[in-house]
Amino acid sequence: MLADTEMTEKEIINDFKENYGKVRKLLDEDSKNDPENEPYLSKYKAKNILTSMRDSLKNVMNTESNLDQIKLLAMQGAVLLNVGIIDMETEDFASSEKGLMEAEELLAEHASKPEIVTTLINVYNNLGILWSNRDEPEKAKSFLLKAKELYEGFKCTLQMPLPIDHMMNNAGEAAVGDFMLLEKAHTLTLYYLAQVYGSLKENLKSAVYCHVTLRRQLQYSDYEPIDWALNSATLSQFFAEQNGFYQSRHHLAAASTILDTYEDSLSASGDDDEVFLAKLETLKHRSADVARCWAKYCLLLMTASKARLMNDAERMTEAITDMSNLSLDDSENICGGNMRSLIFPDIDVKKYENKISDKFLLTYQDAREVFLCCQTWLNKAKEYYKLDSLASDYVELVQDSSQSYSYLAFFEEDDERRSKMHKRRIDMLEELIKEINPTYYLQYCRQLWYELGEVYSDILNIKLDKLNNTKEKPTPHALKKVNMLCEKSIENYDHFLNSVKDKNGMMPSKVDVDLIRPVISAYAFIGRNSMKRIAVDKNGQLINVRKSYESYNAVVEICSNDPDAAAIMHEEFSLCTEMVKILPIKIKRLETEALAQN
To answer: How many angstroms separate the CA atoms of 206 and 413, rounded?
Structure first.
């Protein structure tokens, strides 16, 4: 009798192994070659086999025998898991939910068994994906936290997991690969939790889960270098935006270190075929992207330092750049509540960390070092992103370069040197705008015109401050320079505004919400700069004041006709309304004086 039972169990396992092998081949290999008109052909074939396997296993489970019930449950759970995944991938979400929930109900009672644990974690993971696809992040989170809790509980038992492949092979001891399947499943849990918390707008917790996912991938050497580096560099941007420059720099340094290692391995391979060249091209592309992330780090550090110096002198002592001042609900114990622990202990990143500070900048010398680092990374990115092939990216790199000069100018105390920095911005922006076609790149042209208007205004204000602070009579050259700067600023703002107007030169009755702030600001700047022009006679003054009035009145008309614009630009609306009341009096006086002068 015993021999018959053993034979029956062996037959069941062999039958399962044969059919499961067919399923995996259909899903892992054949599905890649399915015809376009039947994209799920192999998946449906696999599902038919799995459905037959499920029915056979149910029949065996319902018969009294001495067969290993846990092993049978594990096999049935694996079948239901695969059916649920196929249903989800073929967008039959209702059937997917039914199959996955059936698997959970079947396995949950024996969750801590080595044969069950990995399959059940994968069931919870896929229920998390399912509910995320249905835009139900809270439900997704509940299943993913079950998977996390199950993994942590099982690890405390010090048992070795026994995944389905191991049982089919009927090996005597669990292999390292079995252990890795459990660890990979848990890494996926953490990855999905990062996405879910992002959907729930719990961005800090999402970022911490992203970090833990990346750290585990490094720990278990389970990552693709290019993807890992990009993910780490992208995550660094979030940390920098939270003033977490300690964590941001570390993640960027890790990204560059991983790319260096990958580049070395490519060089050592000695290949030069098409596959190698494709990998090399991808490396160049993504290295340029990481370089851009480094440049953004520099810009964010300069921005935050400028804001800190300008906002509140009393807060100067709060120089925290490692997010240790942020509170995190760490009831799930993902980083022990210690934000400084968000590092990668398995790799040495000092080579890159030592190149740039992670502290707020206080002096011009501090800013200059970050500025030079920013220029280095921007130039590296420009080696890949060129104007003639990837124009949009190239334009953004030039804009970043201009911004870096702007922030450096903030730290510079010498007026002449500040003016030269802004002049450098003008040169690069005007050179760029000559090269791009407004028909195809209108959005970027608008940004460049607007920024040029700002830069000319910045230099104008420096020159006017210098004139106001000197007792000497201004030279004709100085006065001419002021007028030229006024005109160039107004000219660029006019270019920007004309790009928003219709063919008849009229501003739309309702300005696009994204354009409200720059449009109204441009009119306000034109209004102010028109008044700053120095006229030699009353007629010239009259022209300048009329231009100023027209610009302020344009703001009043836009805001009066559009409540959204009035709400967004409340302060400017109020100021322009005042000017529209005041300036007609000045215009009348100048008209009288101009007539008398003539």
So the answer is: 41
Nearest to 121 by CA among 50, 198, 190, 215: 190
Joined tokens for residue 46: 């696999």
* % of the chain with per-residue pLDDT over 90: 70
Q: Chain centroid to CA 335: how far?
A: 22
Residue 408 tokens read as: 């450096």
Structural contact between residues 284 and 266, judged by C-beta atoms closer than 8 angstroms: no
Name the DSSP letter for residue 474: P
CA angle 89, 95, 100 (to 5 degrees): 85
Note whether 354 and 391 are within 8 A (CB). Answer: no
Query: What domains can be seen in the chain, in order of their start residue?
Result: 1-201 (1.25.40.10), 227-367 (no CATH)
Q: What is the pLDDT of residues 157-189, one digit of tens each?
A: 888 888 787 766 654 444 555 788 899 999 999
How do residues 455-496 score in pLDDT, each as one tens digit?
999 999 999 988 888 878 888 888 899 999 999 999 999 999
| Cβ pair 201, 257 in contact under 8 A | no
* Distance in angstroms (rounded) separating the CA atoms of residues 480 and 468: 15
Distance CA(531)–CA(274), nearest Å, equals 64
Give the Cα-Cα-Cα angle 77, 79, 80 (nearest 5 degrees): 65
Alpha helices, H only, 312-382 = 350-353, 364-382
* Distances from the Cα of 53 to the Cα of 49, 90, 162, 193, angstroms: 6, 20, 20, 32
- Structure tokens of 157? 């038992």
